[in-house]
Amino acid sequence: MEFQTQNINQYFQWIISLILEHLPSVILALIIFVIGLILAKVVRSTTQKLLFKTKLDKAVTMFLMQILHIFLVIFVILIALSEMGISTTPLTAAITALIVGIGMSLRTSANIVVSGIMIVSTRPFRIGEFVDMGGTTGTVEAINFVFCTLRTTDGREVKVPNSLVTSRIITNFSNNEFRRNDFIIGIGYSSDLKKAKLLLQELVTNNANIIQEGDKAPIIRVDALADSSVNLLVRYWTKRADFQETKWALTEQTKLCFDDNDIEIPFPQRSLHIENIPAQLSIDKK
C-alpha cells in the first residue's frame, strides 16, 4: 500500500514538474495566438478598406479577404505551435494531406469553390446588380466560397450554389442603362385597326418614361393575325429604373383607352348552337 502511494506521488510530481517546465511556452503560445488573431483581423480590415478605395469589384475584394483571413489564421496557429516546441513540418504535411483528402472526397464542394473563383474572376455580375440565374431573380447581396446570395423582389433571401450559377444562363438587368419591352395587345377583327394604332401611339407619346427619339424611338406594328385577334406590337425603350412601372402603367392605360373607344380585346370563348329537332323525329325516338 505504501509502495502504491509512493508511486502515485511520484507520478503527480512528474506531471507538476512537466507542467511547470512547459508552462511558460504554453502561456507564450496562447499570447501569440490571441495577439495573432487580433492582428489578422486588423490586417484583413485594413486591406479591405484599401481595396475598396481602388477600382476592384466589391465581390472580388470580399472573396480575396476570405482567402487572406484563412491563410493568416493558419499562419498564426503554426507560429503558436512552433513556440510550444512542436515541429510544424509534420503538421504542415498533415494539413496538406487533409486538404487533398477532403478535395478528393468532396469533389462537389471543391467544384463549388472553383466556380466561386470563376465568378469573381470573370465578373458576370457585381454586388448590387439585379440578375436572373436560371429562373432565380433578385439583387446580388454577397458572393463567397460556396454561395451567391440574392434578395428577391418580395424580400426573400435566396442562396444559389456557385456551381449552379456557372452552369446556368445568367441574365444581368443592371449592366445596361436602358431596357426594351415588347408589349403585345390583341384586338378583335371587327375593331378599327387604324384607330387602335393611333390610340396606342397617343399613349406611348404621352408617357414621359418612354424614349421618343433616335434608334430607341417606339414602333407600333401588326405582329400577327391570330385565330381570334389581330395582335399589335408596341416596342419601346425606357431607362432601367422605369421599366416595370412603365409596363404596368401602359397595360392599364391601354385597357381603359380601348374600353372608352369601343376597341374589342378578345378573350377565349365558346359558342353553343342548339338546333330544333322535328316533332315527328322526337316522337319516333321516344
From TrEMBL:
UniProt cross-references to Gene3D superfamilies, sorted A to Z: 1.10.287.1260, 2.30.30.60, 3.30.70.100
Intracellular or extracellular location(s): Cell inner membrane; Cell membrane
Q: Does the keyword Protease apply?
A: no
Mechanosensitive ion channel MscS C-terminal domain: residues covered: 183-265
GO CC terms in record? plasma membrane
Q: Which GO terms describe its molecular function?
A: mechanosensitive monoatomic ion channel activity
Q: Which PROSITE patterns match?
A: UPF0003
Q: Which superkingdom does the taxonomy of this entry point to?
A: Bacteria
> Locate the Mechanosensitive ion channel MscS domain: which residues?
113-174
> Any keyword Cell inner membrane?
yes
Q: Which UniProt keywords apply?
A: Cell inner membrane, Cell membrane, Ion channel, Ion transport, Membrane, Transmembrane, Transmembrane helix, Transport
Annotated membrane topology is: Multi-pass membrane protein
Q: Where are the transmembrane segments?
A: 12-39, 60-81, 93-120
**Homology family:** Belongs to the MscS (TC 1.A.23) family.
What this protein is reported to do is described as: Mechanosensitive channel that participates in the regulation of osmotic pressure changes within the cell, opening in response to stretch forces in the membrane lipid bilayer, without the need for other proteins. Contributes to normal resistance to hypoosmotic shock. Forms an ion channel of 1.0 nanosiemens conductance with a slight preference for anions.
Subunit structure of this entry? Homoheptamer.
Name recorded for this polypeptide: Small-conductance mechanosensitive channel
Organism equals: Cysteiniphilum litorale
